[in-house]
Specification:
Length: about 60
């Protein structure tokens, strides 16, 4: 999933994908002001964030 290309995934680089233990998905709400987005946060085995990317849309 971490390597999947947008808009279906974050498209993280191979160096990040090799270290990913989990991915969190954060998104705007329909009632939030501004543009809608989905944000993907890659976490390593210790739970440290190693990459983050934001994709427009919901």
């Amino acid at each position: 999933m971490a390597a999947s290309s947008p808009p279906f995934g974050p498209g993280f680089r191979d160096e990040v994908v090799a270290r990913v233990e989990s991915v969190e998905v954060w998104a705007s709400g329909f009632d939030d002001p501004g543009e809608d987005f989905c944000e993907f946060r890659a976490l390593d085995a210790a739970g440290n964030e190693i990459a983050r990317t934001r994709i427009g849309g919901y």
